[in-house]
């Protein structure tokens, strides 16, 4: 539907609505018209009051809390933004430290094995012998 067609349809519906309301208004009981006028005026006054309150700047202010009390709202907004990145940075730093700790632990275990192999009476070539593996399997404590 094009815009002119929509406008025409809207005008027809509005004309029918106006005619129906006009006919219904003529058939109202005697006191209903006055009650409707008073209700309409009250609704309009309430809407004006609401608009007036919304247009007035708020004079109520809450006392500053936390860092805003010391350094002001700008610093608090900045710290709030930074505060969102801090948990992610702590998580990444923890993962990095943990991976470094595990790497050191693996190096320590490997160096202990190397020291034990080099300090043993057997030459390192003996550990590569398939018979040595069988010997270990038979003599496990």
Q: Which runs of at least 5 residues are low in confidence (pLDDT < 50)?
A: none
Largest sheet: none
Mean pLDDT: 79
Can you write the helix and strand succession as a string?
HHHHHH
Q: What's the tally of helices?
A: 6
| Radius of gyration using CA atoms only | 43 Å
Note the beta-strand portion: under 5%
* Share in helix: over 70%
Q: What number of structural domains do the residues give? A: 2
Please provide the count of β strands.
0
Report the principal-axis shape.
Answer: elongated
The span between the termini is 90 Å
Computed structural class: mainly alpha
Oligomer: single chain
Structure write-up:
- It is a single chain.
- This protein is mostly helical and 141 residues long.
- The chain folds into two domains: 3-55; 72-138.
- The protein is built from six helices and no strands.
- The protein has helices spanning 3-26, 32-55, 67-71, 73-119, 124-127, 130-138.
- The protein is elongated and about 120 Å long.
- The protein starts with a helix and ends with a helix.
């Amino acid at each position: 539907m094009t815009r002119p067609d929509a406008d025409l349809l809207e005008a027809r519906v509005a004309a029918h609505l106006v005619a129906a309301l006009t006919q219904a208004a003529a058939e109202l009981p005697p006191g209903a018209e006055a009650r409707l006028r008073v209700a309409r005026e009250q609704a309009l006054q309430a809407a004006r009051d609401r608009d007036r309150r919304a247009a007035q700047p708020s004079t109520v202010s809450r006392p500053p809390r936390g860092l805003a009390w010391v350094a002001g709202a700008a610093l608090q907004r900045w710290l709030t933004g930074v505060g969102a990145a801090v948990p992610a940075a702590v998580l990444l730093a923890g993962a990095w430290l943990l991976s470094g700790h595990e790497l050191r632990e693996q190096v320590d275990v490997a160096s202990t094995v190397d020291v034990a192999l080099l300090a043993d009476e057997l030459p390192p070539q003996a550990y590569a012998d398939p018979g040595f593996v069988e010997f270990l399997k038979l003599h496990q404590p």
